[in-house]
């Protein structure tokens, strides 16, 4: 069964968003995947003439319409039919709503340079889409390629880790990806100083968890390499991805609600903000 059937690619007119869109189109070529290109223009209320910029509403929205024309041209270049969607309103709300409306199973978004943590700070479109959407989100950094040859799957000991691994199994089956699972043990130094046995207990718990995950993959006839690291999770994930030359990082966004979904400093945020390669956030 095909993992992804409908991709919603989000365009804001930036070259980074066009790069991510083109990668989505290339990925979809000859695969039967339907690609939707979405751009969202702001809603202007009241008398436009009072703004004092001397442009009509049609002129203000023209760049967004031009964005969709360029998206169509990219699709034609690769022989992929692109369905254009123009919306007005709050970008993250429209992206989430449209993904539900068209039954998208993957949202693709671009990202600026690898050090641009501001891309995923509280309040950004990317952050809010990840927080409120129930659809997988693929973040594609500038100049990165969408590839599935070697995948690094980041998990923790939680039900969300099981969900991520289920998606990883689907990825392995669909794309014959080499699978690597990493779990990072982080015990605060103050806790370790008071009760050092906590570290040993946690270490054994994670080892057992990784062994169980390995058995799940083996039952599906999928070989997997498990990696256990100690330290700051986001650093170890990024370092390992570079060390094994991974094409993709798969990570989960824990099921929080409301503003709790948008708290800064999470492992997921930092991995997205600093990764040189695409990051798939599993929902």
Tell me what the CATH architecture of the largest domain is: 3-Layer(aba) Sandwich
The CATH superfamily title of the largest domain: HUPs
> What is the domain total for the residues?
2
Order of helices and strands: EHEHEHEHEEHEHHEHEHE
Total DSSP helices: 9
The description of the largest β-sheet is: 10 strands, mixed
- Termini separation: 19 Å
Radius of gyration: 20 Å
Mean pLDDT: 86
Identify the overall geometry.
elongated
Largest sheet strand order? 3-2-1-4-5-10-9-6-7-8
Strand-pairing-aware structural class: alpha/beta
What's the total count of β strands?
A: 10
Query: Roughly what percent helix?
Result: 40-55%
Please report the first level of CATH classification, the CATH class of the largest domain: Alpha Beta
The percent range for strand residues is 15-25%
CATH T-level topology of the largest domain: Rossmann fold
Report low-confidence residues grouped into runs of 5 or more.
Answer: 114-123, 255-265
Which properties best describe this structure?
283 residues, alpha/beta, Rossmann fold, 2 domains, ten-stranded mixed β-sheet, Universal_stress_UspA, Rossmann-like_a/b/a_fold, Universal stress protein, putative
